[in-house]
Design goal:
about 160 residues; mainly beta; four-stranded antiparallel beta sheet; about 45% strand
Length: about 160
């Protein structure tokens, strides 16, 4: 039984997505180092997606991010830029992203950073190690309390 994470069904998440503050400690590890840790994070909840977690820039270790090429556009949040992440002799290309000027509904995310779980050594919500959202595009973190069908695997990208 999960005592500190409530059971959630991803089909119950809203569309358009919702932004909410996170009460658990969020942590990212790469190269044997904790590169980001916060008690002041946010998460975005969207139907059929694992939550995407965002860290305030002051809670990301100095010097671990370098600007990466490319951008993408989210219909809800706006234009994203990408970051490569390096720590402990390990470098991961385009492993994080941020929104400099997100849409009005997501304005609190300005400058916050999200990390893809797959290229990191480990990511945590509270004491729970996460799995990456299926597929190579979405950056949600799958925790053991989630239920329902999470999109991202082949054949699910367009629903």
């Amino acid at each position: 039984m999960i005592s500190d994470l409530l059971q959630e069904n991803v089909q119950d998440y809203p569309r358009p997505p919702a932004l909410e503050a996170v009460t658990q400690v969020l942590r990212v590890v790469l190269g044997g180092m904790t590169i980001a840790e916060t008690r002041a994070g946010f998460r975005v909840l969207e139907t059929h997606h694992a939550p995407t977690y965002y860290f305030p820039p002051q809670d990301v270790a100095a010097g671990v991010l370098t600007a990466a090429q490319g951008t993408s556009y989210c219909e809800w949040k706006g234009a994203a830029r990408y970051w490569s992440v390096s720590a402990g002799g390990v470098r991961r290309q385009r492993a994080a992203w941020s929104y400099a000027r997100p849409s009005e509904d997501f304005a609190p995310l300005a400058g916050y950073l999200a990390f893809y779980a797959e290229p990191m050594e480990a990511c945590y919500v509270g004491r729970h190690k996460v799995l990456p959202q299926p597929g190579s595009f979405y950056g949600g973190w799958v925790t053991e309390n989630l239920r329902g069908e999470i999109k991202g695997a082949p054949g699910t990208e367009r629903w």
